[in-house]
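Is adenosine-5'-diphosphate placement plausible here? Inputs below.
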Amino acid sequence: MEVREEEVVSIIGPNGSGKSTLMKTIFGLLKPMEGKVCWNEEDISGLKPNQIVRKQMSYVPQTSNIFQSLTVTENLNMGAFIREDDYSDRIREIFEIFPQLEEYRNQYAGKLSGGEQQMVAMGRALMLEPTILLLDEPSAGLAPNLVDMILERVEEINRTGVALLIVEQNAKDALEISDRGYVLAMGRKEYEDTAQGLLDNEEVGELYLGG
Ligand SMILES: Nc1ncnc2c1ncn2[C@@H]1O[C@H](COP(=O)(O)OP(=O)(O)O)[C@@H](O)[C@H]1O
Ligand SMILES: [Mg+2]
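Reply from A.M.:
I modeled the complex. C-alpha coordinates:
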Protein backbone atom coordinates (compact mmCIF):
# COMPACT_ATOMS: atom_id res chain seq x y z
CA MET A 1 0.00 0.00 0.00
CA GLU A 2 1.18 3.50 -0.52
CA VAL A 3 0.27 7.09 0.20
CA ARG A 4 1.76 9.74 -2.03
CA GLU A 5 2.47 13.34 -1.16
CA GLU A 6 -0.65 15.37 -0.39
CA GLU A 7 -3.00 12.47 -1.11
CA VAL A 8 -6.06 11.41 0.85
CA VAL A 9 -6.21 7.61 0.99
CA SER A 10 -8.97 5.59 2.66
CA ILE A 11 -8.77 2.12 4.08
CA ILE A 12 -12.09 0.37 4.22
CA GLY A 13 -13.07 -3.09 5.40
CA PRO A 14 -15.26 -4.89 7.90
CA ASN A 15 -14.74 -4.84 11.66
CA GLY A 16 -11.81 -6.96 12.67
CA SER A 17 -10.22 -6.88 9.21
CA GLY A 18 -7.02 -5.35 10.56
CA LYS A 19 -7.42 -1.64 9.81
CA SER A 20 -6.38 -0.41 13.25
CA THR A 21 -3.60 -2.99 13.36
CA LEU A 22 -2.27 -1.66 10.08
CA MET A 23 -2.29 1.93 11.38
CA LYS A 24 -0.54 0.90 14.60
CA THR A 25 2.06 -0.98 12.59
CA ILE A 26 2.78 1.98 10.34
CA PHE A 27 3.19 4.21 13.39
CA GLY A 28 5.52 1.80 15.18
CA LEU A 29 3.19 0.69 17.97
CA LEU A 30 3.32 -2.84 16.58
CA LYS A 31 6.09 -4.60 14.72
CA PRO A 32 5.34 -6.07 11.30
CA MET A 33 5.74 -9.83 11.14
CA GLU A 34 6.59 -9.48 7.46
CA GLY A 35 7.14 -6.68 5.03
CA LYS A 36 8.27 -3.20 5.88
CA VAL A 37 7.11 0.34 6.34
CA CYS A 38 8.91 3.01 4.37
CA TRP A 39 8.44 6.73 4.66
CA ASN A 40 10.18 9.21 2.37
CA GLU A 41 12.27 6.33 1.03
CA GLU A 42 13.49 5.48 4.52
CA ASP A 43 12.76 2.12 6.10
CA ILE A 44 11.04 3.01 9.37
CA SER A 45 9.94 -0.51 10.32
CA GLY A 46 10.94 -1.16 13.88
CA LEU A 47 11.21 2.52 14.83
CA LYS A 48 9.24 3.56 17.89
CA PRO A 49 6.42 6.13 17.76
CA ASN A 50 8.59 8.70 19.55
CA GLN A 51 11.11 8.38 16.70
CA ILE A 52 8.45 8.35 13.98
CA VAL A 53 6.80 11.61 15.12
CA ARG A 54 10.12 13.32 14.46
CA LYS A 55 9.78 12.25 10.84
CA GLN A 56 6.63 14.30 10.39
CA MET A 57 4.14 11.49 10.68
CA SER A 58 1.30 11.84 13.17
CA TYR A 59 -1.38 9.44 14.29
CA VAL A 60 -4.77 9.80 15.92
CA PRO A 61 -5.79 6.50 17.54
CA GLN A 62 -9.34 5.20 17.39
CA THR A 63 -9.83 5.51 21.16
CA SER A 64 -8.24 7.33 24.10
CA ASN A 65 -6.84 9.98 21.82
CA ILE A 66 -6.96 13.04 24.09
CA PHE A 67 -5.97 13.99 27.63
CA GLN A 68 -9.43 14.31 29.21
CA SER A 69 -8.27 16.09 32.34
CA LEU A 70 -6.25 18.73 30.48
CA THR A 71 -7.64 21.81 28.77
CA VAL A 72 -7.76 22.16 25.00
CA THR A 73 -4.67 24.38 25.01
CA GLU A 74 -2.83 21.96 27.28
CA ASN A 75 -3.68 19.13 24.91
CA LEU A 76 -2.21 21.12 22.02
CA ASN A 77 0.87 21.87 24.11
CA MET A 78 1.27 18.14 24.74
CA GLY A 79 1.19 17.62 20.97
CA ALA A 80 4.13 20.01 20.74
CA PHE A 81 6.00 18.38 23.63
CA ILE A 82 9.20 17.84 21.65
CA ARG A 83 9.17 21.27 19.97
CA GLU A 84 11.72 23.68 21.34
CA ASP A 85 10.77 26.63 19.14
CA ASP A 86 7.92 29.10 19.58
CA TYR A 87 4.88 27.29 18.19
CA SER A 88 2.23 29.92 18.91
CA ASP A 89 1.73 30.42 15.14
CA ARG A 90 0.95 26.75 14.81
CA ILE A 91 -1.71 26.97 17.51
CA ARG A 92 -3.25 29.89 15.60
CA GLU A 93 -3.28 27.83 12.39
CA ILE A 94 -4.98 24.96 14.19
CA PHE A 95 -7.59 27.34 15.60
CA GLU A 96 -8.21 28.47 12.01
CA ILE A 97 -9.01 24.90 11.00
CA PHE A 98 -11.04 24.26 14.19
CA PRO A 99 -12.55 27.57 15.35
CA GLN A 100 -14.51 25.82 18.12
CA LEU A 101 -11.26 24.83 19.76
CA GLU A 102 -10.29 28.45 20.16
CA GLU A 103 -13.61 29.17 21.78
CA TYR A 104 -13.14 26.29 24.22
CA ARG A 105 -9.39 26.63 24.65
CA ASN A 106 -9.56 26.84 28.45
CA GLN A 107 -12.14 24.06 28.88
CA TYR A 108 -11.25 20.56 29.99
CA ALA A 109 -11.14 18.39 26.88
CA GLY A 110 -13.08 15.65 28.67
CA LYS A 111 -16.05 18.01 29.05
CA LEU A 112 -16.38 18.63 25.31
CA SER A 113 -18.73 16.81 22.93
CA GLY A 114 -17.54 13.78 20.97
CA GLY A 115 -17.04 15.84 17.80
CA GLU A 116 -15.09 18.51 19.64
CA GLN A 117 -12.91 15.89 21.34
CA GLN A 118 -12.09 14.48 17.92
CA MET A 119 -11.03 17.98 16.84
CA VAL A 120 -8.78 18.21 19.90
CA ALA A 121 -7.21 14.88 18.94
CA MET A 122 -6.61 16.01 15.36
CA GLY A 123 -5.32 19.39 16.50
CA ARG A 124 -2.94 17.72 18.91
CA ALA A 125 -1.65 15.47 16.12
CA LEU A 126 -1.08 18.46 13.85
CA MET A 127 1.13 20.33 16.33
CA LEU A 128 4.35 18.82 14.96
CA GLU A 129 3.42 19.93 11.42
CA PRO A 130 3.23 16.43 9.99
CA THR A 131 3.35 15.83 6.25
CA ILE A 132 1.18 12.76 6.79
CA LEU A 133 -1.59 12.21 9.30
CA LEU A 134 -3.04 8.78 10.11
CA LEU A 135 -6.66 8.93 11.33
CA ASP A 136 -8.33 5.85 12.75
CA GLU A 137 -12.12 6.23 12.58
CA PRO A 138 -12.27 9.96 13.27
CA SER A 139 -16.07 10.01 13.11
CA ALA A 140 -16.79 6.85 15.11
CA GLY A 141 -19.90 7.29 17.22
CA LEU A 142 -20.71 10.77 15.91
CA ALA A 143 -24.06 11.95 14.56
CA PRO A 144 -24.33 12.08 10.73
CA ASN A 145 -23.99 15.86 10.52
CA LEU A 146 -20.79 15.65 12.57
CA VAL A 147 -19.42 12.97 10.26
CA ASP A 148 -19.65 15.50 7.42
CA MET A 149 -18.06 18.16 9.60
CA ILE A 150 -15.10 15.88 10.44
CA LEU A 151 -14.61 14.93 6.79
CA GLU A 152 -14.72 18.60 5.81
CA ARG A 153 -11.98 19.27 8.35
CA VAL A 154 -10.00 16.40 6.83
CA GLU A 155 -10.27 18.07 3.43
CA GLU A 156 -9.15 21.34 4.94
CA ILE A 157 -6.15 19.72 6.61
CA ASN A 158 -5.30 18.17 3.23
CA ARG A 159 -5.48 21.61 1.58
CA THR A 160 -2.72 22.75 3.93
CA GLY A 161 -0.47 20.20 2.20
CA VAL A 162 -0.84 17.23 4.56
CA ALA A 163 -1.34 13.72 3.17
CA LEU A 164 -3.93 11.64 5.03
CA LEU A 165 -4.47 7.94 5.52
CA ILE A 166 -7.94 7.42 6.95
CA VAL A 167 -9.87 4.49 8.31
CA GLU A 168 -13.55 5.35 8.28
CA GLN A 169 -16.68 3.37 9.00
CA ASN A 170 -18.60 5.81 6.85
CA ALA A 171 -16.70 4.36 3.96
CA LYS A 172 -18.72 5.96 1.16
CA ASP A 173 -18.38 9.42 2.67
CA ALA A 174 -14.67 8.90 3.19
CA LEU A 175 -14.17 7.73 -0.40
CA GLU A 176 -15.99 10.85 -1.63
CA ILE A 177 -13.17 12.98 -0.26
CA SER A 178 -10.34 10.54 -1.03
CA ASP A 179 -8.03 10.24 -4.00
CA ARG A 180 -7.54 6.50 -3.66
CA GLY A 181 -8.58 3.66 -1.43
CA TYR A 182 -7.82 0.13 -0.30
CA VAL A 183 -10.17 -2.58 0.90
CA LEU A 184 -8.80 -4.75 3.69
CA ALA A 185 -10.43 -8.09 4.45
CA MET A 186 -9.10 -10.58 7.00
CA GLY A 187 -5.81 -8.75 7.21
CA ARG A 188 -5.23 -8.74 3.45
CA LYS A 189 -5.51 -6.19 0.71
CA GLU A 190 -8.52 -7.21 -1.39
CA TYR A 191 -8.91 -4.23 -3.67
CA GLU A 192 -7.08 -1.04 -4.49
CA ASP A 193 -8.25 1.63 -6.84
CA THR A 194 -8.99 5.30 -7.20
CA ALA A 195 -11.70 6.34 -4.78
CA GLN A 196 -14.12 6.73 -7.69
CA GLY A 197 -13.13 3.29 -8.98
CA LEU A 198 -14.02 1.73 -5.63
CA LEU A 199 -17.29 3.66 -5.44
CA ASP A 200 -18.20 2.43 -8.95
CA ASN A 201 -17.14 -1.18 -8.27
CA GLU A 202 -20.31 -3.26 -7.84
CA GLU A 203 -18.63 -6.01 -5.88
CA VAL A 204 -16.99 -3.56 -3.49
CA GLY A 205 -20.28 -1.72 -3.16
CA GLU A 206 -22.21 -4.85 -2.31
CA LEU A 207 -19.66 -6.37 0.05
CA TYR A 208 -18.17 -3.33 1.76
CA LEU A 209 -20.21 -0.23 1.12
CA GLY A 210 -23.62 -1.46 2.16
CA GLY A 211 -25.01 -2.21 -1.33
N1 LIG B 1 -2.64 -9.05 9.08
C1 LIG B 1 -3.14 -9.68 10.16
N2 LIG B 1 -2.92 -10.98 10.36
C2 LIG B 1 -3.42 -11.62 11.42
N3 LIG B 1 -4.17 -11.04 12.39
C3 LIG B 1 -4.46 -9.74 12.26
C4 LIG B 1 -3.95 -8.98 11.14
N4 LIG B 1 -4.40 -7.72 11.27
C5 LIG B 1 -5.14 -7.69 12.41
N5 LIG B 1 -5.18 -8.89 13.00
C6 LIG B 1 -5.92 -9.18 14.25
O1 LIG B 1 -7.31 -8.96 14.00
C7 LIG B 1 -7.95 -8.36 15.13
C8 LIG B 1 -8.76 -7.14 14.74
O2 LIG B 1 -7.94 -6.18 14.13
P1 LIG B 1 -8.22 -4.62 14.14
O3 LIG B 1 -7.00 -4.03 13.53
O4 LIG B 1 -8.65 -4.12 15.46
O5 LIG B 1 -9.44 -4.53 13.11
P2 LIG B 1 -10.31 -3.28 12.62
O6 LIG B 1 -9.64 -2.02 13.07
O7 LIG B 1 -10.34 -3.42 11.12
O8 LIG B 1 -11.66 -3.48 13.21
C9 LIG B 1 -6.85 -8.04 16.13
O9 LIG B 1 -6.93 -9.00 17.15
C10 LIG B 1 -5.56 -8.19 15.35
O10 LIG B 1 -4.53 -8.68 16.16
MG1 LIG C 1 -10.31 -0.43 14.21
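Short version: The pocket of adenosine-5'-diphosphate (ligand 1) is lined by residues 13, 15-21, 187 (CB under 6 Å).
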